[in-house]
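pls ignore typos typing on phone
zinc ion + seq
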Amino acid sequence: MSKTTNYRHYIASDKWRNSPARLAELAASKDRCRLCFEKGTAAAPLEAHHATYERIGDEAIGDLTALCHRCHVEVTSMLRRRRYQRRRPRRADVLRLRDTRHSFIDPTRH
Ligand SMILES: [Zn+2]
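k done
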């Protein structure tokens, strides 16, 4: 199983739903998003964002942050952008792009 599949399984599991760290964070936030203070509802429950994946499956209380879905999406894409920003362009990437032996477009396909 891939890392992503494992993660998806875990997030859908009872173990995650009943995680003491997750329940403690939701209670500590008084069921409000930590960023926009929107209250979680049955239709749009709060989500627990992993500030660290160090203890995934056995999270400690500070590992999670209660967020509404909208803020969670924002935070996740912001972190992803930041990660890509940190990634230095490598010479090999450019050389691969310039290498005309491998065409990205297959002229025989329509
Ligand atoms: Zn929010």
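Residues 33, 35-36, 38, 67-68, 70-71 surround zinc ion (CB under 6 Å). The two ends are 34 Å apart (CA to CA). more later
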